[in-house]
Amino acid sequence: MGTVTSFKDLIVWQKSMDLVMDVYLLSNAFPADEKFGLTSQLRRCAISIPSNIAEGWGRNSTKSYLHFLRIANGSLSELETQLIIAKKLNHITDTQKADGLIIEVSKMLNSIIRTLSERG
Is residue 76 a contact partner of residue 105, using CB atoms and an 8 Å limit? Predict the structure, then answer.
């Protein structure tokens, strides 16, 4: 693995960006009356994940980085919940790609958080 010089080098950030793209594709199929409801909420939530990873990285402090990684992790859980709601409302049926990315990003975030927390 190469040297990490930017948040853009982080696989967790890259995977979370892939998740944003997938959420946008999925939410394009939502009914028009969800434009300011679930569609907007899903997209904001998805965008929050890589944004918080990047913001934490840019703070140049392990404590701040951990704080923003935890926020990203919370947004990931929120996104997962909203996708479940969208499925229950029959707005979408196939979330296999998003579900897989959620699992991957969750494992990566939890691993980074655990590692940085253990360092103290």
Answer: yes
Q: How far apart are CA 100 and CA 73, in angstroms?
A: 15
User: 3-state DSSP: the chain helix, strand, coil percent, rounded to 5?
Assistant: 80, 0, 20
Give dist(CA 91, CA 22) in Å, integer.
Answer: 15
Domains of the chain: 9-119 (1.20.1440.60)
Q: What are phi and psi of 30, to 5 degrees?
A: -70, 155
Residues 87 and 109: their CA atoms lie apart, in Å, by 25
The tens digit of pLDDT for each residue in 20-37 reads 999 999 999 999 999 999
Return the SS3 of 36.
Answer: coil
How far separated are the first and last CA of the chain, in Å rounded?
A: 24
